[in-house]
Structure formats: structure tokens, C-alpha cells
Design goal:
4-stranded antiparallel sheet, binds 2-oxoglutaric acid, alpha+beta, Jelly Rolls
Length: about 300
């Protein structure tokens, strides 16, 4: 297993991350990490799901919301798909699966965060693992990650990695370019619908947060970057950047992905009441504390 990147990160890529809030680093992960990720996702979703701390069947959630009269995101081509696939999500996979843990803590992802942040120290925060099975209708509604985290600071990113070739049709990630610089904090949403969680009674309201605008319904008004990806690519986004994805319209390919979250020097712990509670987040730190502890291990240190 190589702990080095397959190639150097360029200054242009660092600038792109800072200016747009997202950069796709092509061909940076070696095949052994990609294979390990494919095995890890298979294990956590299909053979050992009971072990993970947080599991959502977002297709089931979408159906429940629709029954309750909530407008779930959808479109005609997605509704016309044949046998319906599921949109499944896990949070905290690294606490339950050794392979996810190895990728999170030992792969070159920590080094990538160090390069993009310009940070001397990098901590691992958590992961979200996502599967859109063949013919999955559900969108991932546009959102930012910041309101789901108990953190303050600029140096927080998600690294989206797939062991599959992901096309526009199979749910490639989409990002609202530059939105990390809007200076706003947005309410978290239910992922399959644009409604804020607090409106659905699923999170505490936070008066500092605004509802997200309807980006999906007004796509022409925004600069949306779509990033199809190949195995070996790592797409890094700022935690305040608005992002989402479409259905998996492909009938014979699962779209598997992991989003690994890292933080840099300027980040401290802050309890966030809007964040859905998660059993593996133990809240032993106080607001303003540095986040170094077993829950958020240091993965890069050049101090
Ligand atoms: O894969 C998706 O559809 C969503 C991923 C995401 O929200 C993230 O990486 O933070």
C-alpha cells in the first residue's frame, strides 16, 4: 500500500480549491487504495451494516416524506426508470470498518488536505459513505456540510472518492462554484428534499442559519460545476460550498462513493445544535477547544 500520492498536486489545483471551493484532482490515488475502498463499501453496506453507527435508507425517507406531502426532488426520467434502486448512506464508517479506517487515516488523503489548506496539522473528522444503486431516483439535494459538523474554522473539507467511473447520468457530483465565499451559513436539509431539517422537526432551529435558495429550480442563475470522475480521482470541496448530485439513471451500475472529512490548523470544536445527533460523536470537548483527541485523530503533522 503506497502512502504517497500517485503524482504531485500543482499550485493551479491549490488555487482552484481556494477560489472555486472545489477541485478535482485527477489520478492521484493508486489502484490499491481504490480496490480497498471498493471492498470497504461492499462490506459496510452489504455484509456488515449492523456495525455502523449511522445508517439511512434515503429512498425509504423519500417515500415517507412524499406520503407526508413533502416535495421530494425528482424528475420524469427518474420516475420512468424500471426496477428501483436505493439511495443508502452511512456516517462514521471508519469507527466500524478497518478498511474505511485505513483509507481515512493512512492513505494520502491527509497529505492532500495539508497541501490544499496550507496547514501544518490535519485531523480526520468523519466520513459519509453513499451508494446509489442502479436506477436510483433520488437526488442529493443541494446543501453545505458545515451545519452538520461540530466545528468552526475555514480549513474543513470533504474528499469525495469513488471506486467507479461516475458520469453525469450515474450521479456525478455538482458544486455551486464560489459559494463557500458567500459568507452565509445555511440550514441542513433532508438530503432527498430541499426542506430544512428544522422545518421537518428533525433538527433544532438555529437563527444564525438561512434556508438555502431553490438552486435546483433555478439552475440557470448559478455557476454549477459538474465533476464526472474516474477511479483514482479525488474531488475536494470546502465545507461551506453548496453541492449535491442527481439520480443514478444507469440501470446496470451502482454509484459507490465515500466522502472523507479533514480539518486544518484553524479549526476548533463548537457544538452545533442544527446538526443531527450521531452516536459516535461523544462531545467530550468544550466550545473553542482544539479538536485533537481520539475521536478526531491527527493524520498529518509537520509542526
Ligand atoms: O454523493 C453524494 O451524492 C453527496 C455527497 C456529499 O454530500 C458530500 O460529499 O459531502
Amino acid at each position: 500500500m503506497t502512502h504517497r500520492l500517485a503524482r504531485e498536486i500543482t499550485q493551479a489545483e491549490i488555487d482552484e480549491y481556494r477560489d472555486l471551493g472545489v477541485v478535482k484532482l485527477e489520478c492521484v490515488l493508486s489502484q490499491d487504495w481504490i480496490n480497498l475502498l471498493a471492498e470497504a463499501l461492499e462490506e459496510v453496506f452489504y455484509t456488515n451494516r449492523e456495525a455502523v453507527p449511522v445508517f439511512y435508507d434515503s429512498t425509504e425517507t423519500a417515500d415517507k416524506l412524499a406520503e407526508a406531502g413533502i416535495a421530494v426532488l425528482g424528475d420524469h426520467p427518474a420516475e420512468a426508470l424500471g426496477k428501483r434502486g436505493r439511495f443508502l448512506t452511512i456516517v462514521g464508517g471508519w469507527t466500524a470498518n478497518d478498511k474505511v479506517r485505513r483509507i481515512a487515516l493512512e492513505s494520502p488523503l491527509g497529505f492532500i488536505a495539508h497541501k490544499l489548506f496550507g496547514s501544518n496539522k490535519v485531523n480526520y473528522y468523519d466520513d459519509q459513505l453513499l451508494i446509489k444503486e442502479p436506477s436510483t431516483r433520488e437526488y442529493t439535494a443541494f446543501h453545505t456540510d458545515e451545519p452538520y459538523y461540530h466545528l468552526r474554522g475555514e480549513q474543513v473539507c470533504g474528499m469525495w472518492v469513488s471506486p467507479d467511473t461516475v458520469t453525469e447520468d450515474s450521479g456525478a457530483m455538482q458544486y455551486v462554484s464560489g459559494s463557500h465565499l458567500w459568507g452565509k451559513s445555511f440550514k441542513p436539509n433532508a438530503f432527498v428534499a430541499q426542506n430544512p431539517l428544522d422545518q421537518l422537526g428533525l433538527a433544532e432551529p438555529d437563527e444564525q442559519q438561512a434556508p438555502l435558495p431553490d438552486i435546483e429550480g433555478n439552475r440557470g442563475d448559478y455557476d454549477i460545476i459538474t465533476h464526472p470522475s474516474n477511479p483514482g480521482d479525488v474531488i475536494v470541496h470546502h465545507s461551506n460550498l453548496i453541492h449535491g448530485s442527481g439520480p443514478n439513471y444507469v440501470s446496470d451500475k451502482t454509484r459507490r462513493a465515500a466522502s472523507f472529512r479533514y480539518t486544518g490548523d484553524d479549526v476548533t470544536y463548537w457544538f452545533q445544535k442544527s446538526a443531527p445527533p450521531q452516536p459516535h460523536h461523544r462531545h467530550q470537548l468544550k466550545d473553542g477547544d482544539p479538536i485533537d483527541c481520539a475521536q478526531f485523530p491527527i493524520v498529518w503533522d509537520s509542526r
